[in-house]
Amino acid sequence: MExxxxxxxxxxxxAIGQILIDKTKLTPARILTGYxxxxxILSAVGLYQPxxxxxxxxxxxxxxxxxxxLAKGVREAVAQKGWLGVLxxxxxxxxxxxxxxxxxxxxxxxxxxxxxKR
Length: 118
What we know:
The chain has 6 helices and no strands. It is mainly alpha-helical. Helix 2 (28-44) packs across helix 5 and helix 5 (63-81) packs antiparallel against helix 6 (84-112). The chain is globular, with a radius of gyration of 16 Å.
């Protein structure tokens, strides 16, 4: 059942993104940024954790999950370090994902020779 929930949750998030691409003039970059901000806002008001508990990886892997991780990291760091946690909590909580994205990006660029498509 966990796989089905993850599939449904991730599918709904992707479908919303596709609808936004098809029906609005928003650029993909703005939609991606909107997803991160939506994850932060939903986490701040306490609505994203139940979604993440139900949807599992379908909720935590997409960009809304990244926003949720940022907000959760800031909340925990503020509780431990005070106002300094506002500046450090989000990066501390998401450092592993950011590092993996950079490392895999560099590896893929080294293997596949990136360039303009002409």
